[in-house]
Amino acid sequence: MFDSDPTPVVTVFLRNRGEVLLFRRSDDVGSYPGRWGAVAGHVGNDDPQASALQEIEEETGLHEHDVTLIREGSPFTVTDEDRDTRWRVHPFLFDTDTRAIETNWETAEAEWASPTTLLRRDTVPDLWTSYRRVAPSILGITDDTTHGSALLSIRAL
């Protein structure tokens, strides 16, 4: 049984041309070494969006002006019985026009891949759930009267 509230964290998917940035976590990280994840980190000052932007900068070298917030998903709780831990995950999706990133010590490998690649990887807990919370939906595509068909078809992936 858990005596404390879940630890608030952000999971941030960066998207470029329909693919998302995935990281294989280094052996030096405290949780889930060797597993695949996205940009992630603890929420500071009870501000998930500011924390998401901070983690993007720390883990990729990209700045706020390099990314565009597309969607903030509904937070959800992940329970990891093996670690006796609960996480309150705040998922985000940002678009970026660049694939030029600079990773830090937390990352062993980085890859731009189709979101469905998550289904075939050994990931941090509930990474697919995080993605589904921010993934493009049919309503988002149909209601978009701003972007052209080429961009919308890429976003639908």
Question: Would you write up a description of this structure?
Answer:
With 157 residues, the chain is α+β, with helices and mostly antiparallel strands. The protein has one domain (7-155): Nucleoside Triphosphate Pyrophosphohydrolase (Alpha-Beta Complex), CATH 3.90.79.10. It is 21% helix and 34% strand. Strands 1, 2, 3, 4, 5, 6, 7 and 8 form an 8-stranded mixed sheet that branches. It is globular, with a radius of gyration of 15 Å. It starts with 6 loop residues before the first strand and ends with a helix. The mean pLDDT is 90.
CATH architecture label name: Alpha-Beta Complex
CATH homologous superfamily? Nucleoside Triphosphate Pyrophosphohydrolase
The major beta sheet can be summarized as: 8 strands, mixed
Provide the gyration radius in Å.
15 Å
Shape: globular
Give the fraction of residues assigned to helices.
10-25%
Number of domains: 1
Number of distinct helices: 4
Low-confidence stretches: none
Number of strands: 8
Fold-level CATH name: Nucleoside Triphosphate Pyrophosphohydrolase
Distance between the termini: 39 Å
* Secondary-structure element pattern, one letter each: EEEEHEEEEHHH
Percentage of residues in DSSP E strands: 25-35%
CATH class: Alpha Beta
